Amino acid sequence: GPMLISLLLALFIYKWAGEIWSRSGGLIALFFYAFMPNILAHSQFVTTDLGVTAFAFIACYWLWKYYKTGRIKNLVWTGVFSGLALGSKFSGLLLVPIFIVLIGFKEFSIAGSFARRGLNFFKKFLFVVTIGGLVVWAAYFFPADPMFYLKGYRTVYADKNVNFLFYFNGAYSSTGRWYYFLEAFLIKTPAAFLLALAAVIAFWKKVNLKRTDWLFLLVPMAVFFVITSWKGYNIGVRYILPAYPYLIVLAAGLLPALKNLGLQWKLTGLIITAILGWQFVLTARIFPHYLAYFNEFVGGPANGYKYLDDSNLDWGQNLKMLAEYQRSHPGTKVIYHWPYSYPDYYGITDNQAFLKTKWWREPSGRYAADINFLIRARIVSFIKNEPSLDWLSVYKPIDRIGYSYLIYEF
Q: Tens digit of pLDDT for each residue in 9-45?
């Protein structure tokens, strides 16, 4: 499922970038997408993040296509994929303000009376919303309750832990930070890609991108990024995954930017090859631990736990590796964090995490400790005044399993 959705998204990234920049630009965008660690990570998991990312992006593409061609079928496709986005995750509702801005801008830029332009805006917006609503209704198997979607939306964060502390840059907070997602983006996105994106922005006049193209790439990205930074839980870069496709298409403008700067084709080709090669090598090196990717700004994935936790690091994806390690190192005790997965399914034994005994005061032998558990243990260490619980500060690991577990020997 998620892998097929990821392939569909790849197709539309290539398609949109190709139509804006040229076929070469489409290929560059496709390369950035194919070797984007955050995309690779979430293309493996059965979650809602990639679904809303893909369907919202495709919906915006079809709306852009409608204003390029005037064909009503493109507006129909806009509604269909909007409905799929709304049905995949409640953050798909952000398409509503996005479409208000995009359709409003295009309709009110057309000559005519204000009333006429307002009517056209209302008709097209209502057309898209109606089709999207029908798709959502079908996705929920035609419920009789007209308020079904609103009731579902009200359950978002309904079971949140009001005492939960967010972890960020080695500190804890009950409220989170407004710049959490900005920093997460900057340290969990390949530096090569960020350089390409910065070049396009810096030389935006040389890119020669039309105003409509800027609008359709920047508005959805900005809405997803800003609203998520304002309302989203500080637990994972995945919450801003919907912003990535627009930035990937924009970064593909590196080719025309360099070309219009007057650089020779050989030098242009060398720069692009170096940037793409840089991203490819560092993404390939972390295989298969894409979820725990961190770029050179923070010293790579080995230092990631010093800045972020939760789904930025570990979602139980390395349990098989943990089981293999335990088999090859008999007697290794396990300290595991996630309560909704089952280590014993993989044959993992001797899990210490939820035992009530005070084993951490005098540990003995070898331990494989989940990094998220160690980060959270710091809080308990402070509250209970138990320094021996803060293994990250007190002890030095002798090894690691991927980027999810640190190995300690006593």
A: 999 999 999 999 999 999 999 999 999 999 999 999 8
Residues 6+ apart with CB under 8 A from 6: 39, 43, 50, 54
Output the pTM of the full model. 0.93
pLDDT at 266 over 90: no
Q: How many Å apart are CA 170 and CA 228, to the nearest integer?
A: 22
Q: What is the CA radius of gyration of the chain?
A: 24
Bridge partners of 401, per DSSP, are 405
* 3-state secondary structure labels for all residues of the chain: CHHHHHHHHHHHHHHHHHHHHCHHHHHHHHHHHHCCHHHHHHCCCCCCHHHHHHHHHHHHHHHHHHHHHCCHHHHHHHHHHHHHHHHHCHHHHHHHHHHHHHHHHHHHCCCCCHHHHHHHHHHHHHHHHHHHHHHHHHHCCCCCCCCHHHHHHCCCCCCCCCCCCEEECCEEECCCCCCHHHHHHHHHCCHHHHHHHHHHHHCHHHHCCCHHHHHHHHHHHHHHHHHHHHHCCCCCHHHHHHHHHHHHHHHCCHHHHHHHCCCCHHHHHHHHHHHHHHHHHHHHHCCCCHHHCCCHHHCCHHHHHHCCCHHHCCCCCCHHHHHHHHHHCCCCEEECCCCCCCHHHHCCCCECCCCCCCHHHCCCCEEEEEHHHHHHHHHHHHHCCCHHHCHHHHCCCCEEECCCEEEEEC
Q: How far apart are the C-alpha atoms of 335 and 352, rounded to whole Å?
A: 5
Q: 405 and 292 in contact (C-beta within 8 Å)?
A: no
What is the predicted pLDDT for the residue at 158?
Answer: 72
| pLDDT at residue 344, rounded to an integer | 86
